[in-house]
Specification:
Largest sheet: none
Radius of gyration: 20 Å
Helix content: over 70%
Strand content: under 5%
Number of helices: 14
Distance between the termini: 44 Å
Structural class: mainly alpha
Number of strands: 0
Length: 319
């Protein structure tokens, strides 16, 4: 009975974190972009530093009419936003904040999280196909092509850290982490971060939702709450990417002077990575399709393979 209660408590905490953290990232994106671009609305809506901007957005989405196109595959159309969101909730279960502070401790936690994150693209594919809209379908095809190009370097960069730590357990990777890995695994971290941005369709890799070319890609026909779920899935993906980058490459709960803060170090590092994700959106223009594919296959994949080989050599020499 005690084990069941502990499991329910862990799952409940992960669910609460899943509801809160993406909203915090969304609010932060409003503020960061407002300051960088000189936009007054998000900085002042509701009084103190625009605290009500996120509330206003939520009310706006809730009031919008829920429309399903007449020729759409209704069941698939309605299921797509949920399928886009759920994988990130499942992924958070296996990402540790501190020793023992994890939803489920898995010996193959890294493999589990990477596999689950790859499912998220099905939401875009289903939404684009079921919408009965050629622009939505084109955006879905772009999502699939982007996933094929960037999933390989994403996994290879993560495999480099797993090889260095000698384990697929995320907790084990953090426990094996050493400060000098910041330099040793730096190329792998850059590959992992850039490939993660591409998998989340974040700028400058937002070709599947290029509004000037295909309106809004797979999400063109979505309105109201269903459209908001796709946006929430994007912010949840940022949370998972930031947390995973922290655990794999930045030492997780290890602090610069002491590990006493534990889970707080993990959160601080994760929000720092999330800030970089937002900053990149503001700072860089969208890539063309050929540039996107060239970067993935001709730059990131070779760099990830070199990092993997280097890690193997260093690991053998050290052992």
């Amino acid at each position: 009975m005690a084990d069941v209660l502990e499991l329910l408590l862990r799952v409940g905490c992960v669910f609460v974190a899943f509801l809160v953290l993406p909203l915090l990232v969304g609010q932060t994106e409003h503020k960061v972009m407002a300051h960088m671009q000189g936009r007054l609305g998000p900085m002042y809506a509701g009084g103190f530093h625009g605290w009500a901007q996120l509330v206003a957005d939520g009310v706006k989405f809730a009031q919008k009419e829920d429309i399903v196109p007449a020729n759409a595959d209704r069941r698939v159309f309605q299921l797509a936003p949920v399928l886009a969101l759920i994988p990130y909730l499942v992924a958070l279960v296996a990402i540790p904040l501190a020793p023992g502070l994890v939803g489920a401790e898995l010996e193959t936690g890294l493999f589990f999280v990477l596999a689950v994150m790859g499912i998220g693209v099905l939401g875009s594919l289903m939404g684009g196909w079921a919408s009965a809209n050629k622009y939505s379908l084109l955006g879905a095809f772009r999502s699939a092509g982007q996933l094929l190009a960037y999933e390989l370097p994403f996994v290879l960069a993560a495999a480099s850290v797993a090889m260095a730590a000698g384990t697929l357990s995320l907790t084990g990777i953090v426990e094996a982490w050493q400060p000098w890995w910041l330099l040793w695994q730096l190329p792998g971290m850059l590959v992992f971060f850039v490939a993660g941005l591409a998998e989340l369709h974040r700028p400058p890799f937002d070709m599947p939702v290029a509004d000037a070319e295909i309106i809004f890609g797979p999400y063109t026909e979505y309105t109201g709450i269903r459209f908001a779920l796709f946006l929430l899935a994007e912010y949840a993906g940022i949370v998972v990417l930031a947390a995973l980058t922290t655990v794999l490459f930045l030492g997780g709960w290890h602090g610069p002077f002491s590990d006493a803060l534990g889970w707080l170090w993990t959160l601080l590092k994760a929000f720092a990575v999330a800030f970089v994700v937002i900053w990149v959106r503001v700072a860089y223009p969208r890539l063309r399709s050929d540039q996107l594919q060239r970067l993935g296959w001709q730059v990131l994949v070779p760099l990830a393979l070199v990092q993997l080989a280097l890690t193997g050599v260093v690991s053998v020499v050290i052992s």
